[in-house]
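Per your request, structure below.
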């Protein structure tokens, strides 16, 4: 039995540092450009983190939220974009900030490409 096995959200073939770097790169680019084109598995991997970061910005005081957000984002520009433009739009919501739209299947490995964007 596969209890507590979420196979679509983890990248088990990568070690911890690779998974963390992948997550941070995707989150940084997402908040800079407000949408990214990636595979479906990677998009489902970062959607919970996007929800968490927007909720942290909207609920906690500013200094603690800055510290917590900078553990997930690489650049200062992406965190400023999150604080100034993204989070204030979703002040009354707690989840459902993103939309995953399928685009096509990638040539070569036939991976499903999706567009992950803000609602």
């Amino acid at each position: 039995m596969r209890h507590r096995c979420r196979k679509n959200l983890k990248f088990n073939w990568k070690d911890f540092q690779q998974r963390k770097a992948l997550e941070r790169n995707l989150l940084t680019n997402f908040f800079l450009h407000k949408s990214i084109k990636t595979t479906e598995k990677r998009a489902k991997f970062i959607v919970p983190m996007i929800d968490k970061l927007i909720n942290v910005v909207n609920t906690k005081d500013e200094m603690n939220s800055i510290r917590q957000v900078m553990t997930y984002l690489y650049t200062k520009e992406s965190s400023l974009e999150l604080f100034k433009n993204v989070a204030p739009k979703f002040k009354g919501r707690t989840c459902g900030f993103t939309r995953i739209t399928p685009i096509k299947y990638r040539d070569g490995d036939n991976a499903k490409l999706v567009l992950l964007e803000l609602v």
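Strands lie at 35-39, 98-105, 112-118.

Regards,
D.
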